[in-house]
Design a protein that fits this description.
2 strands, about 240 residues
Length: about 240
């Protein structure tokens, strides 16, 4: 029952969306279709992504205060819990708000993954809606040079580079913001900044290039969107400090 709902609500619409773009792009180029497809999916998920970025940035800004509370109430969990909640309330920060958008996105991302991993490879075009032209098959050659049905280490490396840029941007210290007192938390953050790109490259090199290309594009667009959000937040904070 749940699988049927998942297929009807997520998998089939996403699969048909990609087929639609494939039909309308010049030369029926799958690479161009994936670019349009990725942009539209990114626009749909944009509100959740922006909320997640803002929440993570807010948590970073109060991390020194969190460290102070942990040091003050070290070994006294009964007092530390209420103190933490009071800090979140005072700073108007929800510690769970960065996780919720990611949870909402997960079913959509899984459906996109399956469309690239199974739908296109297996040629399940019987799922194409009646009002969308059924191409019967898709030419996997993108831009005349890349076979998106095969693995591509080049696209995997590009996806890893985009992941590194995005992670580095998130980990960068904000101006006039004290560094976290927790050496372990800081070290783990730096390790993840380097580990995640390697994980991306590894898995990207194992999957069909179409999926890796999508992951590269969505990560790159996410990094650009993150950069824009950060600049807006910095400008707002600067305006507030100027008024004060």
């Amino acid at each position: 029952m749940l699988i049927e709902i998942y297929n009807t609500v997520l998998y089939e619409p996403i699969f048909n969306l990609l087929v639609f773009f494939y039909n309308i792009v010049p030369g029926h180029d799958l690479g161009l279709a994936i670019i349009l497809f990725t942009i539209l999916i990114k626009l749909i998920l944009s509100p959740f992504f922006v909320q997640s970025i803002k929440a993570q940035r807010s948590m970073q800004s109060i991390q020194p205060k969190i460290d102070d509370l942990k040091e003050k109430y070290k070994g006294d969990k009964e007092k530390m819990g209420p103190a933490m909640m009071e800090l979140y309330k005072k700073e108007k920060v929800n510690p769970f708000s960065s996780c919720l958008p990611l949870l909402i996105q997960m079913p959509i991302l899984i459906a996109v993954f399956q469309v690239f991993r199974k739908g296109l490879v297996n040629g399940s075009f019987e799922l194409v809606y009646p009002f969308i032209a059924n191409p019967g098959s898709m030419d996997p050659i993108a831009f005349g040079i890349i076979d998106l049905s095969q693995k591509s280490i080049v696209l995997a490396v590009l996806a890893g580079a985009a992941q590194f840029w995005q992670s580095r941007m998130m980990m960068a210290k904000r101006k006039n913001q004290p560094a976290p007192k927790s050496a372990m938390a800081s070290a783990m953050g730096k390790q993840m900044m380097y580990i995640l790109p390697f994980i991306t490259v590894y898995f990207g090199s194992q999957f069909p290039a179409g999926l890796t290309f999508y992951w590269f594009l969505t990560t790159l667009l996410g990094a650009l969107q993150q950069l824009i959000v950060f600049k807006k937040m910095d400008k707002q904070e600067l305006n507030l400090r100027t008024k004060d």
